[in-house]
Design brief:
This protein has helices at 9-15, 28-43, 61-65, 72-75, 82-88, 156-162, 169-211, 218-222, 229-242, 248-267, 305-315, 346-358, 376-388, 475-492, 498-507, 540-552; strands spanning 98-104, 143-145, 331-337, 363-366, 392-396, 425-431, 453-456, 460-464, 468-472, 510-511, 515-518, 521-527, 536-537. The protein is an alpha/beta fold. It has two domains: 1-50 and 156-273, no CATH class; 66-154 and 302-552, Peptidase S8/S53 domain (Rossmann fold, 3-Layer(aba) Sandwich), CATH 3.40.50.200. The strands form four sheets. A seven-stranded parallel beta sheet has the order 2-3-1-4-5-6-7, sandwiched between helices. Strands 8-9 form a two-stranded antiparallel sheet. Strands 10-13 form a two-stranded antiparallel ribbon. A hairpin with a 3-residue loop joins strand 8 (460-464) and strand 9. The longest helix is centred in the middle third of the chain and has 43 residues, at 169-211. The chain starts with 8 loop residues before the first helix and ends in a 9-residue tail after the last helix.
Length: 561
């Protein structure tokens, strides 16, 4: 799927059992709809669950579109106080451009709300097929595409099963156990996915015929006065979907992809395809760097939804007539295409980080991750290299609702889950727009030692390919929210180091001292302070105030001798 890893939909929503080995964007639309369909079709349920928020009344459409920019004290919404920064702190202040590397699926560099903020390599002459800057990448005008024409990939545990030599016996057996579990799950769940797909199609056809139009709104569904049980049930199903802001067409497409993935697991087809072969490189040789191309959008714009959305969260042009607003107002987006629909290769991530560093990025966002990393040392070395060049790496914590102090989640900055080997990486969990018990997104990973902060990650509105905009969610969205704040700090206070920015983000955040639900399960409530190192959610206003104070401090005097 478009950077929605193969999630056990029904387990997620019905049992809150996140047993996924990968993390990318979670589109809870699909998950909740499947749950709703299962319930509706088996028990004739006719209503959807209402979302309770701390704010009095439901969020307006405009509030929802920019909730991550709003202020908890002013708006009763757990945003990052970005709008408050612009209205109260930045008037009359100057900033310097900051390059933000987006290591992701690719970015729509032609998007109306992004094209003016795309990084351009001025050392390279476009189209002459010469490596003018002699960095090893020919015509890398806006970044580099380490995937070539690849859009889909195997998951890492599948690659391990396909090549046992990649890992030790213990790791191999762990990967095999996951695949065995996937087969069992596919056998149990495939029917329910088919039910969800058929139920969606039936409900959509019913309502489209009734309304005389192929698309419709929740308000139009509310206006239907019918006692027909089929119509009532169809309305309940489609309102559940529309509540998350995704089109019916996209929904059906993604369910079909999910069904296809189950079929491939059942048949073993998932272990037979070598997607990497067309690149012509050796993925197990970090010195083999002559691969990929300069097409940072890849072969299909529809497959760069994830990266385009991430880039928009950071850098959409503020206060124009298009879409939403980015967080930082003076950034350049450098695109590194290294994350396919499937698991990223360690080699691509390591080289992608180094590429972004070498081309001037001061912040790198990575909204990706996996449970196995055969060449993790390559990535560790790249993180250390970024640290040596004063580059901050912002990374998504993952969407498995698991404690990553106990379970593997790569990449990370600690080989033993206890001691950090670098201090330039900040790992981000996701928040919901409901302040209170449900403020932590029910999919978000957590960890007292290995998650640093939390930030908005549910229903985030930003750019998507072909001049469109969507609500998407996941820790994939929380991470660029933090990267945007980091870029804001480094733009207005360029003397601050990556390490200083990291700790500003952690120490200036808003503390939550109450217990919250973990994994969306009230029975598993924990103190928010136990879910990350800081026990805080990022607050841009507080961060900018702290940054200004720190930037004004005199540098320590170095004594010779």
């Amino acid at each position: 799927m478009n950077h929605c890893r193969k999630i056990e939909y029904l387990k997620v929503f019905l049992n809150h059992n996140f047993n996924k080995t990968n993390m990318k964007l979670i589109k809870l639309t699909y998950l909740s709809l499947i749950a709703a369909l299962t319930l509706s079709l088996s028990a004739n349920a006719q209503s959807t669950q209402k979302v309770a928020v701390a704010k009095k009344g439901a969020l307006t459409e405009n509030e929802l579109k920019r909730w991550s920019h709003l202020d908890l004290d002013k708006d009763s919404i757990p945003g990052m106080s970005v709008d408050k920064v612009y209205s109260e702190l930045l008037k009359g202040k100057t900033s310097t451009p900051v390059i933000v590397g987006i290591v992701d699926s690719g970015v729509d560099i032609e998007h109306e709300d992004l094209k003016s903020v795309i990084w351009t390599n001025k050392k390279e002459i476009p189209g002459n097929k010469i490596d003018d800057d002699k960095n090893g990448y020919v015509d890398d005008i806006h970044g580099w595409n380490f995937l070539g024409n690849i859009t889909k990939e195997n998951l890492e545990y599948e690659r391990i099963l396909m090549d046992k030599k990649l890992v030790d016996e213990t790791t191999y057996l762990k990967a095999k156990a996951i695949n065995d579990g996937k087969i069992e799950e596919a056998n149990q769940t495939k029917f329910q996915i088919e039910l969800a797909l058929n139920g969606t199609k039936k409900a959509d056809e019913k309502l489209a015929k009734l309304l005389g139009k192929p698309t419709y709104t929740a308000e139009e569904l509310d206006a239907i006065d019918s006692k027909d049980p089929e119509v009532v049930q169809s309305i309940a199903i489609m309102k559940q979907m529309l509540a998350y802001g995704l089109s019916v067409a996209d929904l059906k497409k993604e369910i079909e992809k999910e069904l296809e993935s189950y079929i491939k697991v059942q048949s073993g087809e998932n272990l037979k395809t070598n997607y990497r072969k067309i690149l012509g490189d050796n993925p197990d040789n970090i010195k083999d760097t002559k691969y990929g191309d300069n097409n940072v959008m890849g072969p299909d714009k529809e497959e760069i939804l994830h990266g385009t959305h991430v880039a928009g969260i950071v850098a959409q042009v503020r206060n124009n007539k298009f879409g939403g607003d980015g967080i930082a107002n003076n950034v350049q987006i450098l695109t590194v295409r290294a994350v396919p629909d499937g698991d990223e290769y360690d080699k691509d991530i390591a080289l992608g980080i180094r590429y972004a560093v070498d081309n001037g990025a001061k912040i790198i966002n990575g909204s990706f991750g996996k449970a196995f990393s055969p060449h993790k040392q390559w990535v560790y070395d790249a993180i250390k290299y970024a640290e040596s060049k004063d580059v901050l790496i912002v990374h998504a914590a993952g969407n498995d609702a698991k404690d990553i102090d106990k379970e593997d989640n790569y990449p990370n900055d600690s080989d033993d889950k206890k001691t950090e080997f670098a201090d330039n990486m900040i790992t981000v969990g996701a928040l919901n727009y409901e302040y209170g018990t449900n403020v932590v997104a029910d999919f978000s990973n957590y960890g007292k030692l290995n998650v640093d902060v939390f930030a908005p990650g549910v229903k985030i509105y930003a750019s998507t390919p072909n001049n469109t905009y969507q609500f998407l969610q996941g820790t994939s969205m929380a991470s660029p929210n933090v990267a945007g704040v980091a870029a804001l700090i480094r733009s207005y206070y360029p003397t601050l180091t990556a390490k200083q920015v990291k700790h500003i983000l952690m120490e200036s955040g808003t503390a939550i001292t109450t217990s919250v639900a973990v994994g969306g399960d009230p029975e598993k409530s924990r103190l928010f302070s136990e879910l990350s190192q800081s026990g805080r959610m990022v607050n841009a206003y507080n961060a900018m105030v702290m940054a200004e104070k720190l930037a004004k401090k005199p540098a320590p005097v170095k004594i010779k001798g």
